[in-house]
Structures are given as C-alpha cells and as structure tokens.
Amino acid sequence: MSTLKTRYTLTQSQKMMIFVLSMSLYGLSNMFTELIPSIQLGPIELSVEYFAFIPLTLCMLFHPLYAAVGAAVGEVIFGELMLGQFGGLGELEKFITFSLAMYIAGRMVSDPKNRRQVGIAAISGVAIHQFCSSVIDIAKVWVGVEELEAVQGLAESIVIIEGVGFLNDVLFSGILFALLPTMYLVPRLYGKIEPLLGMKPRERNMQYASGSKSWLSPKLLGGAILLALIAMGAELLSESGWSIGEFELPGAESNEGMLIWISMLAAAVVAAVVLTVILRKASRRRQEAGQLDG
Amino acid sequence: MVEAVKRALNKISVEHIKLELLGTAYNSSSTFLGRLDPRMLLIWYLFFAITPWFIYNRTILLGMFVFMVVTTILSKVSPYIVFILCLGLVSQIGWMFLLSLFFGGGAESLLPMLTLTLKLSVISLASITVFSSLDPERLSDGLSALGVPDAFAFSLSYGYRILPTLLEEFHQILLSFRLRGQRPEKHGFLYLRTAAYYLRILVLVFYPLMLNTAKRSRTTVEALETRGYTYAVNNPKVKKLRLSYLAMQRRDWLFVAFTVVYIGLLFPLGAAVPNLLY
Q: Which among A177, A189, A286 has the least Cβ separation from residue B149?
C-alpha cells in the first residue's frame, strides 16, 4: 500500500471506524424515525422521512464512500432487520440510491467550514435520493400493472402521487431534518470529531488520495444504469413474451403454460445476472476499498 | 385530530420506545421456519421475491398468496407488522384508485391494481416470513455462505450487541438536555410547539452522541484488530470452519419438495382456470 507516501489516505482500520460510526449512528436514528408518527393530510403525508443529516454530516467530514455505505447498512440492519420489517430485494434499490445520493453530497463539499456549500450539498443529496426513489416507484407500477394504458388516469395519478411525495420529502423533511441540522453540525464537528478516530481533518480542496483510482462515482453510476437497464429489459422481455405468444398462437390454451415457463426462465436468468453483477460489484468494491471489513 | 396527536405524544416516552425496540429486536424465534437451513430459505425467498413480477395470471398469484399466508402464520409474525403492511398496501392502492377516478377512470381500473396488490403482498409476505423467522446469527451465516460481504455479517452482530448501549447513552443525553432546557409553556396549535421542542432536542442530541460514538467505534475497531479480525475474514479456511454447521436436513428437503410440487401444480391450474378470482 502506498499509504505512507500520500498524506490523506486512510488506513484500513480508519475506514472501518468510519463505517462503524456511520452505521451505528444512522441505524439508531432510523429506529426512532420508524416510530415517529406521521401526519396525513389527504394524499400528502407530513412525515419525518429520515434523519438524513447524520449520513450527510459524516459524508462531508470523512471519506464519503465509507460513511455512505455504512449509513445504508445501518438502515438495513437497525431500521429493517431488527424491527422485523426487512423488505428483502426491495431494500436493495433503497440501499443503492441512498448510498449514491449521500456519496454525491459528500463529494460536493470541498470545504466543510463553508456553510453555503454544505447547505447546497445537503439539500441536493436529499433531492437526488428522493428523485431516484420516486422514479423507481413509478417504474414499479408500470411493470406491475399489465395494461397500464387501458386504465384511464392511472399513469397520471401515479406520477402525481409520487411528485407530491417528492416535494414533501424535499421541502418538509429535507429542510427540517437535512438542511438545517447539517449546516449546524458540520462546521461545529469539523476538527473535533476527526481526532477521536485518530485522523486529520479534511483540508480545504483536498483530494482524496485514493480518489483517482477508486473514485466510485462513474462506476457506481454505471452500475446503477446497468441495473436499471436490466430491470427495464426484464419488463420488456416479459411483455413481448406475452404479446408474441398471443400473436402467433391465438387462444392456444396449452401454450399458455409454456409461455409462463418461458417468462419464468427469463425471470430466473435476470435474477442470476443481477445477483452476479451485484456480487461482483461488491467484491470489486471490497478489493478496491482495501477491504472495508478488514 | 388533536386527540390522535395527544395519544401519539403520550406514547413517545423514551423508556417505552426502548422497551418496544428491545422487545422486537431480541424476540427469539423458535418457529418451524426458523430451524430450516438459512441458505435454502434465502434462495426460496429470492424465488418468491422475483417471479411474481412476471406473472399476470391471477389464479397463480392467488395460489402463491395463500401459500405465503400459511407460511406467515407458521412463522408467528407479530400482528403489529402485518397490520402495518396491510395499511401500507391498502392506502397506496386506495389513493391511486381515487386519483384515477378523478382522471376519468372507472371501477374497471380497480382490477389491474388488485393484481398489483396481490403481487406486492406475495413479495412482502415472503420477506416477512423469511427475515423475521431467521435469528440474526443464522441469517448472517446464511448470507455469508451465499457470498454477501463479511462486513454485513459483522455489522449485523455488532448492531445487536451495541443497540442497548447506544439506546442507554441516547437516553442519558436526552435527559440531560431536558434537565437543562425548558419545555414550552403551552402546547400550541395541534401540539406543534411541543412536537417542535422534542424534535429539536432529538436532533441536538446527536451532536454529543456523534462524538461519543466516534470514540466507541475507534475502540471497537482496535479491539477487533487485536483479535485478528482482518486475518480471519480474509482466510477462507476460517470461513469454512465457521459455516461448517450449515447442512441440509430432511425437513429442509421436505420443505423444498413441498414448495416445488405446490408451485408445479399451480401453473397447470392457472393455465386451465385463468379467471378463478375475477
């Protein structure tokens, strides 16, 4: 390792410390936000979506990658698994979008003492996350409902519901629980929390030493786009499977079973591809990150 | 409205939340599904999490749903979680229906959405069944046997270990903030003042908590390293030894066989009677 030459490279233990710190703090806050009741005003829900300020603060103060991934893991473990609400594969999408958004927000800050920069980064982190999850929710309904166009007004209503949810999350919990606390905490914690983990504070405009190589943003983006493409491809495949079947063999009862099996096979292939991609990515990330877990 | 807020606020005592959380998290599970092989259960789950998206035959979906209900009952999921799940599904679909009526749809728009609900409930029941009946140790071993990074397995056990300590510390800091602060004299419109006061404290508490947790995570990592954690994680022999107790037993094979037969019978049935439900 070239850690000795470059000044701001983190050692493996330091990476692990950031990971553990971010995981336990955000996990704890997630347990509370799961329990805070929300106020429903019609379809608009005023709720404390999450305490985004915790991962945002940590991403801005430390290396954003480990803080972001740690927070996402913490959410899965404390907020979902321990409360018995784990959604399985559905959490994967949350995991990816959340860590991506927090990572980007962390990268946007070059000077943690600059409040304006911190504020802009915080609100855009929340906006990116909420936007991604709204788009995914809309796509889910489009895949899940077969004859979407046949149902009058369904498409519009989904977009409206998601849009209102997006605005609420960004404007209400985004400002109250991401923007204001982050602007309060980051300059205050800067220089105080780093020595406790045995590392130097980030300096102004510093480059991440491992940045040029394991700068995951392009790769992470690429991975996300790939996953989205796979999901869309799967949807198109299943759709086309049905329509081809109906076109070629109108009303052939016996073939319907066959077609089901074909689409099942497609589903299995897609699942296998997705899993291998994820596992590859995970192991690659682990290698690049100098093994997060040690 | 005001009553609801009042009741909700009464429920938020930290002590109460603490008990609730600990009760849910450490609720030991000794159900039928909990004793099955975790790797098998995870693969079983993957099947039921992915295939419903590609099935539009309602009879098959209904059959899957019935199967999921049975397994959910077998795994003795707490009624609270099931209630939350139902509420979420009903409210989501309900709002969509209302809005699509507004845009000129009719009652016929309910049917495709019912299919979607069926799919979503199969998927969520499968996840609840599997993940609430596996205890954390078996779950993390199953995941790491299937190749999930070990950081996750570590975090899972660490989370279970550290939660009581963290909660205790959080509570201490919260109490000290309340001792030094002053509650609003009046509750204000819709208890907004009180709610704002508590939410503000809740955020402020994280400032000392972050510093304390930073110290603790440093101690944790140092303790891990002195015990050779990195070496153990990177050594395949250690992993093999750790996971050697996982084995497919007779009841696992029976469970797999039953699932395969059931799903296998469901597809011809669905092809023969595609409109059993509606």
A: A286
Q: Residue B121's closest chain A neighbor by CA?
A: A87
With an 8 Å Cβ cutoff, are A153 and B50 in contact?
no
Reported as a single tens digit per residue, the pLDDT across A196-210 is 988 888 876 565 544
Structure tokens belonging to residue A228: 């989205």
What tens digit of pLDDT does each residue of A107-154 get?
Answer: 888 888 889 999 999 999 999 898 888 888 887 777 766 666 666 677
Contacts B75 to A, Cβ<8 Å:
none
Choose from B55, B113, B155 for mutation: most chain A CBs within 10 A: B155
Substitution target in A35, A44, A60, A82 with the highest count of B β-carbons within 10 Å is A82
Report how far residue B120's alpha carbon sits from residue B113's, in angstroms, rounded to the nearest whole number.
10
Residue A62 shares a structural domain with residue A179: yes
Give pLDDT tens digits along chain B (278 positions): 455 555 555 555 666 666 766 766 666 556 777 788 888 988 998 888 888 877 878 888 888 989 988 888 887 776 767 777 777 777 767 777 777 777 666 666 677 777 778 888 888 888 888 877 777 788 888 888 888 888 888 888 888 888 888 988 998 999 999 999 888 888 777 778 888 888 889 889 999 999 999 999 999 999 998 988 888 888 888 888 888 888 888 888 999 999 999 999 988 888 887 776 65
Enter the pTM of the model.
0.72
Q: Does A161 touch chain B (CB under 8 A)?
A: yes
Cα A41 to Cα B8: distance, rounded to the nearest angstrom: 16
Interface test with A, best of B61, B206, B225, B239 (most A CBs within 10 A): B206
Residue B244 vs residue A267, higher pLDDT? B244
CA distance B151 to A289: 12
Same-domain status, B105 and B242: no
Please name which of A51, A82, A34, A22 lies closest in space to residue B163, comparing C-alpha atoms. Answer: A82
Packing angle between helix B150-180 and helix B136-145, nearest 10 degrees?
A: 140
Asked whether residue A131 falls in the same domain as residue A261, the answer is: no
What ipTM does this complex have?
0.72
Q: How far is CA B147 from the centre of its chain?
A: 21
Is residue A1 included in any domain, yes or no? Answer: no
Whether residue A224 sits in one domain with residue A202: no
Sort out which chain A residues have CB atoms less than 8 A from B224's CB and list them: 16, 294
| Same structural domain, B63 and B200 | no
DSSP strand pairing (A39-41 vs A44-46) = antiparallel
Domain assignment of residue A253, given as a range: 215-294
Instruction: Give me the residue from B57, B109, B167 closest to A152, CB to CB.
Output: B109
CB contact under 8 A, B213 and A156: no
Instruction: Provide the β-strand partners of residue A44.
Output: A41
Cβ–Cβ below 8 Å for A153 and B21: no
How many Å apart are CA B64 and CA B47, to the nearest integer? 11
Question: Whole domain around residue B196: which residue ranges?
Answer: 1-28+150-247
Note whether A137 and A254 are same-domain residues: no
